Amino acid sequence: MNTLRLALFCLVLLVGVTPASQAHTFSTSFINLKARADGIQVRWQLTFHDLLALNQSWMPEDRISGELLNQNLDKLQHFAQRMVLVSSGEATCELKLNNGSPWSTITFAREQYIVLSMTSDCQPDSFSKLVVDGVWQELPDHKIIVEGDVLGNVPRHVLDQNTPQFTP
User: Fold this and answer.
1) Which residues are registered as beta bridge partners of 84?
2) Beta bridge partners of 65
3) Beta-strand (E) ranges in 17-138?
4) ∠ CA(90), CA(32), CA(19), 5° rounding?
5) What does the DSSP 8-state code read for residue 154?
6) Which helix (H) or strand (E) holds 147?
7) What is the Cα–Cα distance from 65 to 44, expressed in whole angstroms?
8) Cα 143 to Cα 139: distance, rounded to the nearest angstrom
9) Model pTM greater than 0.85?
10) Cβ partners under 8 Å of residue 89, min gap 6
11) DSSP alpha helices (H): ranges in the chain?
């Protein structure tokens, strides 16, 4: 499986990925929250279609490439910080793309996904809320499956436009 991920990553870097030109309606992304000594690791897996739809101001419509993503890591980080809010008590924690590997790609069910790898400065034992904001204006039917070891008694939760947040 890791060999396949590496091959897909190399493909993206060398030739880019051209999303299908079909109309985009329903989509699902995945957020995984994992406790780490330095905070909460956040991995957001979303389709290239969704990434394009949510970043029309700086992404060309026809192609995403590794070069484009690497040249715009600040915009990717700002996008993630704007969309995914992790809280500790009343404070919103800072999300930062991981330095060594801020993104990767994976194919699931014949759909190309980007995985944004971030770390939150929240301590896992004080995690109080996850809010997703700004997705449903562009993608009203979008669902986000949230999993992780910091979610307490509900290890999996689905967010949508009617329930855009999770509180353990």
Assistant:
1) 132
2) none
3) 28-36, 39-47, 84-88, 91-92, 95-97, 103-108, 111-120, 127-132
4) 115
5) -
6) strand 143-148
7) 18
8) 9
9) no
10) 126, 128
11) 2-15, 48-54, 66-71, 73-83
Nearest to 144 by CA among 104, 108, 135, 114: 135
Domain boundaries, the chain: 2-18+29-166
What's the token pair of residue 45?
A: 């897996």
pLDDT digits (tens, 9 = 90+) for 27-63: 899 999 999 998 999 999 999 999 999 998 888 877 7
24 CB burial (10 A radius; 0-12, 13-18, 19+): middle
**How far apart, in whole angstroms, are the C-alpha atoms of residue 12 and residue 18?**
9
pLDDT digits (tens, 9 = 90+) for 7-37: 434 333 333 443 433 444 568 999 999 999 9
Locate 30 and state its tokens.
């995945």
